[in-house]
Design a protein that fits this description.
The complex is a heterodimer of chains A (about 180) and B (about 375). With about 180 residues, chain A is α+β, with helices and mostly antiparallel strands. Helix content of chain A is about 10%, strand content about 25%. Chain A has one domain. Chain A has 3 helices and 11 strands; from the N terminus they run H-H-H-E-E-E-E-E-E-E-E-E-E-E. Chain A has a 5-stranded antiparallel sheet with strand order 9-8-6-10-11, with no helix packed on it. In chain A, strands 2-1-5 form a 3-stranded antiparallel sheet, covered by helices on one side. Classes of the chains: A alpha+beta (about 180), B alpha/beta (about 375). The interface between A and B is large, with 62 and 67 residues.
Chain lengths: ~180, ~375
């Protein structure tokens, strides 16, 4: 049996944005205000403490010897506990990146008004195993001149402003 | 294991925003599916339901909430969810129930109402990221898919103007799909000129947010042969998850899709997928994803999907039609329902009932695939007439 337009048209009624915004369709709205206090565990806990010190720390797998960032208490590939902590550099290379005109809510940035696009990237950290990257922002660079393999370095907040968070690194910028 | 067939299918119209509630959408798709094979709800022994994040609806345990729209009242019922991969996990989940011998019939219902998350469901996805190492950077799904697209492009030297052809093809195919939300005849230039969302992703590279539902009816062989003259068999299933440490994987290639596909091919006895699969519905929430998945599914060699597209192989009239339905880009992308829409497309194509969308050459073996979570899950179903 073929599924026809006649069959599907009676299954759903289209609403336009205007019908909702102008209240022609009644609806209720709810703005959630949920709060959480997350325990980060020993691995990410140490990672955050070291970020506060202006350092990046990784963990090494005793079996495959991968130096993993973010650090983790077990190697998800070998499925064994990790033991050794390893400091890595605060430099790295751009693995891949985007030039974003939208924020996390799909809201549009005022690019025409001079707002700089977001340029989030996967940054492979020097000293960690090849391909080990973290998500962070790039800045102090023309968004359209970023390239794969570009060498970058962390720009830290001043020590007194650091709280032990991934945002203690403001962003990464190109190394001259 | 018993052989399992799809014997009926139903689908709603897809829109950006519908008046109907999630339960009402599920009811419409389920009703149509049962009517298509002249079965009654009392003929159904169990129900599985695919639906994506509870955050879309703002209802925790929404599987339970939706169950009566899916005809599950006082029946064995389970909900499953693996992000965008959900829709193609749905028939796999139902397949287990029937293949095991536990049940002879199973309703597989997939529903998504994304429009309730206001003003845009994208915001609901912030909480899929790691709360400590990623959420403070305010990432979005568009960013990480654009990040993946860029890695795919820089690895092979693929050009945006070539990848854009996927949108041109799929939106045009959707002109013939009765449920389609965004059917259109567009050009590559239209895609390139559309609003930049997160370069290299422009607006016409992305599927829309959608409301909709889809349903199939599964039956064991002895029931299927009684119900229909044209059962479509689920001959291979596979699914796999990769690590959630997505920034430490090389995003140019979806290994997890390959693992899932190999599992499904092994079960279906397929040795050369590019020759034995006649028609495919790879998941295409973004233009590059269709190509990325074609490579992961082994339907071409790595790095050759763009050439395959340029050669017209994946057109409806090509040797290996991909997304003849119009895909997520053209028909719409109500997450879980999209995967079942793709299953239904292969079902109709293999039965010769796809109407204006029917591909030539009487295909007898097809595949549907979906993908999701933190770019980490692959779900694959191989079907034969």
């Amino acid at each position: 049996m073929e599924i026809t337009e006649k069959m599907v048209l009676k299954t759903a009624t289209k609403l336009s944005a205007e019908e909702i915004q102008k209240g022609k369709v009644l609806s209720v709205q709810w703005t959630p205000n949920l709060k959480y206090a997350w325990d980060n565990g020993p691995a990410i806990g140490r990672y955050l403490a070291e970020l506060k010190n202006g350092k990046i720390i990784a963990k090494k797998c005793d079996k495959c010897h991968r130096i993993m960032i973010p650090p983790r208490m077990f190697c998800e590939l070998c499925w064994v506990p990790t033991s050794e902590w390893v400091y890595v550099q605060d430099t790295g290379i751009v693995n891949t990146w985007v030039v974003s005109y939208v924020d996390w809510k799909a809201g549009r940035l005022d690019i025409a008004g001079g707002v700089r696009p977001f340029t989030p990237a996967v940054i492979e950290i020097d000293g960690a195993s090849k391909g080990m990257g973290i998500l962070h922002h790039l800045n102090e660079v023309d968004p359209w001149k970023i390239y794969r393999g570009m060498k970058v370095k962390a720009v830290w907040k001043p020590p007194e402003e650091r709280i032990g968070a991934i945002t203690d690194i403001k962003y990464f910028k190109p190394i001259e | 294991m018993r052989r399992v067939a799809i014997v009926g299918a139903g689908i709603t119209k897809f829109y950006r925003n519908v008046q109907e509630t999630p339960k009402e959408l599920a009811f419409e798709a389920t009703k149509m599916a049962l009517e298509s094979c002249e079965m009654k709800l009392s003929d159904i022994e169990c129900v599985v339901h695919g639906t994506a994040p509870d955050a879309f609806d703002g209802i925790h345990m929404k599987g339970e909430y939706l169950s009566d729209g899916s005809g599950a009242f006082r029946k064995p019922y389970m909900r499953h969810y693996v992000g965008g991969g959900t829709g193609v996990l749905s028939p796999i989940h139902g397949w287990f129930h029937v293949a095991s011998g536990m049940f002879d019939t199973c309703l597989v219902v997939a529903e998504e109402k994304m429009s309730s998350a206001y003003p845009h469901p994208a915001g609901a996805f912030l909480t899929i990221f790691d709360h400590t190492t990623e959420q403070p950077l305010y990432p979005t799904l568009i960013w990480i898919f654009a990040i993946e697209m860029n890695r795919f492009m820089t690895t092979y030297g693929y050009r945006k103007e070539d990848i854009a052809l996927v949108a041109v093809k799929n939106k045009k195919n959707a002109m013939d799909h009765p449920s389609a939300q965004l059917p259109a005849e567009i050009t590559v230039q239209d895609v390139l000129n559309s609003e930049i969302m997160a370069w290299p992703v422009n607006r016409l590279d992305i599927s829309p947010t959608s409301d909709g539902a889809a349903c199939i009816v599964l039956a064991a062989e002895h029931v299927a042969r009684r119900v229909t003259e044209k059962p479509i068999w689920i001959d291979g299933v596979g699914w796999a998850l990769d690590t959630a440490y997505w920034t430490t994987r090389d995003l140019y290639y979806p290994d997890y899709v390959e693992v899932a596909a190999r599992q499904a091919y092994k079960m279906a006895g397929i040795k050369e997928p590019s020759k034995e699969i006649h028609i495919a519905e790879p998941y295409d929430p973004f233009t590059y994803k269709e190509l990325h998945h074609i490579e992961g599914l082994g339907l071409c060699k790595r790095g050759e999907s763009v050439q395959m597209l340029l050669d017209g192989v994946t057109q409806r009239t090509g040797n290996l039609p991909c997304c003849p339905s119009g895909g997520a880009l053209g028909v719409g992308n109500p997450i879980a329902a999209t995967g079942v829409m793709k299953i239904i497309e292969i079902f109709l194509q293999l039965r010769g009932e796809a109407g204006k969308r029917q591909v030539p050459g009487k295909p007898t073996c097809g595949l549907a695939q979906a993908w999701g979570d933190l770019m980490q899950v692959g779900t694959v179903v191989v079907m034969r007439s």
